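Intended use. Records like the one below are meant for learning the mapping from a protein sequence to its folded structure. Do not use them to infer anything beyond what is encoded.
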Amino acid sequence: MDLIVAALAAGASAGLTDAASGAVGDAYGSLRTAVRRRLRGGADGENEALDVLDAGDVESEIWEARLRRALTQADAESDGALVSAARTLLEELQSTVPLKGTCVVNASHAQGTQVGDHNSQTNTFHNTRTSD
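Structure written out for the chain above:
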C-alpha cells in the first residue's frame, strides 16, 4: 500500500512543477486511472474513496491516511496493473525529477570534498612550497 500511496503523492507533487516530463504526466494519469477503476464503487462510479483521490491537499497526512484506508478496503495491493502503474510512475519520477532535498553537484576537480548530510572530515594541508 505504501508504494501506491507514495506514487500518488509524488506524482501529484511533481505535476505541480515545471520539471515534470510528459512521461511523468502520462504515468501519473495511468496510475490515477488504475486507482479510479479499483475504487469505483456504485454504478455511477462515485463514492467517498474517489472523493479522497480527488482531494486537493496531497501533502496532508489526513489525505494519505484516508487514501490508504480506501485503497486497503478496495484490496488495491492485489491489483497487479495498479501496482505496476505505481512502480512505473516512481521510476519515471526518479529518472526525470530531482528528489526533494537533492541537488546536482559537479565536483570533478575538487579535493577533500564530501557530499551528503551528517558527514565528518579532517583535512591536513601541507605547504609544499620552499622558501626563497
